Amino acid sequence: MNRDRLLVSCEQIMEQLRDPATGDANTVLVEITDGGSTLGRIPGSVRLDWTGDLQDPVRRDVIGPEAFAALLGRHGISPDHTVVLLSGNNNWWAAAGYWQFRLYGHRELRILDGGRLRWEALGGPLTLTAPDRAPVGHPVPTADETIRARREDMLDHIGRHQLLDVRSAEEYLGQ
Hints:
Blueprint: H1 3-6, E1 7-8, H2 10-18, E2 27-33, E3 46-49, E4 55-56, E5 61-62, H3 65-74, E6 82-86, H4 92-103, E7 109-112, H5 115-121, H6 151-156, H7 169-172
Parallel strand pairs: 1-7, 2-3, 2-6, 6-7
Antiparallel strand pairs: 4-5
């Protein structure tokens, strides 16, 4: 994917907040958090919790397509929206969210370049007010399993490809 198409600069979003006429009304900012306390949000941004909203606690997997459609619909996000994802912690959760949105067929996706850390470093505005987005009907998507590697896929490729484990030390140790 073209880097210029994938990343959206903090400055571009700041300009759109100052002058909405410069932006795309079809764009939704989605901040994915890790369950920790994060004070404030970018004005208008939807907040999703990686563990509480996007993960199935029983299966230890991403939520299913029905739950994904219901979650996005509740937050006023349709498949036609351009979603700009961001998170703290070097955009780890934004990258994971990007994959999950792609898994469920959402094609117009971007990542906020530098994420929450850069936004704050630039003095970007934050608010305590959640956006007032009207719920929308979101069709139940079909998962694109071609972008997913399961255990069997990994076992089939041992020794032929290099696997990168990007978990933190705590995650690796099960803490």
